Amino acid sequence: MTRQLSPLSVAEDSAAPILELQNRSPSGICRHSRVERQSRSGEEGTQTHTESSSQEAEGQTRCQSCTSTFLKLIWRFLIILSVSSSWVGTTQFVKITFETFDCPFFMTWFSTNWNIMIFPIYYSGHLATAQEKQSPIKKFRECSRIFGEDGLTLKLFLKRTAPFSILWTLTNYLYLLALKKLTATDVSALFCCNKAFVFLLSWIVLKDRFMGARIVAAIMAITGIVMMAYADGFQGDSIIGVAYAVGSASTSALYKVLFKMFLGSANFGEAAHFVSTLGFFNFIFISITPIILYFTKVEYWYPFSAVPWGYLCGVAGLWLAFNILVNVGVVLTYPILISIGTVLSVPGNAAVDLLKHKMIFSVVRLGATIIICIGFLLMLLPEEWDEITLRFINSLKEKKSEDHSEDMTESSVHTRSRSRANGTVSIPLA
Q1: pTM of the entire structure?
Q2: Phi-psi category of 103—alpha, beta or left, where left has phi over 0 and alpha has psi -120 to 50?
Q3: How far apart are CA 221 and CA 252, in angstroms?
Q4: Which of 38, 96, 176, 374 has the fewest CB atoms within 10 Å around its CB?
């Protein structure tokens, strides 16, 4: 029999799927919302992990930069301290040696011979640090370019080395003669005048830029020299010692200016090669001078065992260390740090003279020393110091004006909020 469907049954059959869909729809929506929440939470977790990892990376980078900056400061401080202490030690060792061995030229010649070891020390450092190591002959030829494209020839050896070797010997010999007449503090302070002499010679010979601050520094250096000579009334050993010290500073300045004129700038290897060449020239050609002084009894010692070889080796070793530190410091750090280390030898020698030798410094000598040191520090100003100072002042003014405008903005916002809280409106005047 064929079943007849009533309208009611048709309606019931048609409504069943709808009810079924209605019954299923809430669970489907819940599942969909759960999936969305899980995906959102996963994205938020990924973003949080990424942010935390980036913050950790930034923290590590800052920590590494702070550590490297701290290590650089420590390294520069050690360079300054080493330069100052080596120069103070050299000066004090010379004073001690003079008590038993009064032969300044022999001491100068003996110490200069030690310069031969500078290039071998440099090559040892090259072997220890360089990735591509070179043979000694190849490295020697490479560093010989300071004398020209053809390297070191016999003609250039005599032409370029002889004048610089003579100036080197004169500088050290006059410095030792000055130490026989004056205290270590006075001599080290007067020797700092070489910076002013370098500027004057460079301005005249090399046509360097004129700087008013350095002219003032040169005048201060000359004033300190006159005051130092006046300390004992322009008489006795004082005026002679001042003349020796000023002569040493002058020959040192001439050495530096001529080096810049004929040889230009040099890296550490070229400088080590050149100084070793000076020591070799000193050993070959200057050795006749102490022999002549010995037989003429100008610098005579007897017996041979009476020579204080320990003190002489101490002077030569400290002098060698100072020369190496100067050349290494200029390459690895800034030349200004070497100059600061040199000028710090003045208070270092003063401390030794005061504590060990019980020296009493007069007001005139103390004033002269301070004036010379201030002049030396003025010489360290860069050539663009005036432009740098103006830029710094302008930046401070701009920062101050920005801070003032920010304060005005904050105060106006605070005034508006207060007026709104009180029910009034503040109208700015035109």
Answers
A1: 0.75
A2: beta
A3: 15
A4: 38
